[in-house]
Amino acid sequence: MDLPVMPPVAPMLAKPAAAIPPGMQYEAKWDGFRAIVFRDGAEVEIGSRSGRPLTRYFPELVTAFTARLPARCVLDGEIVIAREGRLDFDALLERIHPAASRVRHLAEVTPAGFVAFDLLALGDAALLETPQRERRTALEEALRDAGDPVFTAPVTYDREVARGWFERFEGAGLDGVVAKPPELPYRPGERVMVKVKHERTADCVVAGLRLHKSGPVVGSLLLGLYDAAGRLQHVGVCGAFPMKRRAELMDELAPLRMPTAEGHPWQDRSDAEDRAASRLPGGPSRWTGKKDLSWLPLRPERVCEVTYDHMQGDRFRHTARFRRWRPDREPGGCTYAQLEEPVRYDLAEVLGG
Length: 353
Known about the structure:
Elements: E1 13-16, E2 25-28, E3 33-40, E4 43-48, H1 59-68, E5 72-80, E6 82-83, E7 86-87, H2 89-94, H3 100-109, E8 113-122, E9 125-126, H4 132-142, E10 150-152, E11 155-156, H5 159-168, E12 176-180, E13 191-197, E14 200-212, E15 215-226, E16 232-239, H6 243-253, H7 272-278, E17 296-308, E18 311-312, E19 315-316, E20 320-325, H8 347-351
Parallel strand pairs: 1-13, 8-10, 16-20
Antiparallel strand pairs: 2-11, 2-12, 3-4, 3-5, 5-8, 6-7, 8-9, 12-13, 14-15, 14-17, 15-16, 17-20, 18-19
GO molecular function, one term: ligase activity
Keywords: Ligase
Enzyme class: ligase
């Protein structure tokens, strides 16, 4: 492979904002695997945000890129999987599998697509210093005849249109809006774009904690919600506490510490496969590798309010953010019924522009 922009490339990143800023280029925020695609003739490489190669997990995309992309190019975009008219991140996670036979099978039954939103190189020209608006024009021209499963992300320069996207597109599984300065060069690894994501609140049961990597203070709180059958389900974690607060939380929660997990609602299902399927604390994951997932059980008696962006199935898609304790709430009242369900929106309508 001999391209004007060579792998690995760290993708350009976004910093969060509370509102959509004016005077920008606006795109929907896709909920998939960020990927930089390099094609030089018959050679294709797909790099992840962390630099980890994704090529072997998406053979159907390698075939599509060879057939549908310009002969020599570098694209920034998102690998996604759609089911029943909306993005399905769980199906995407399943694609990261060590067995080649499983990868081939999943490529057939849950084929992925690629949504391109930036062009880093074309032919012999590196475009990193080219303004965003011009790169966008070049991207549209380069992928004019690409076709499914390669798509060009819809774009607008109208803030009101972007606000409409922010409200409607969530129903198709999208994650918010990204705003890019029109004259911005491509800056690998830098947070120079702006992302605006949905934020909601939920009252959750605090049923466990993980220790911080630095020592015996709280690293994260394990959150639960009761399902319709009355079982406490693990829905995610909240963290990002200042170090002083981590120590304070350890003291505050000490009276709830259980000597063992015996009798804890998350210890009922000890089978490893069941734990993985239920996303229980300590369940195995191909993503976490050797990361310490051990946890300390707490009696599920305290409730906290957290903010979250959206759900992935029956759990929080990203780490929630602690807002406050809710001593006025009973743990048994913390159910899935309180969560807001976005109005469904067909993904085909989004990709159709």
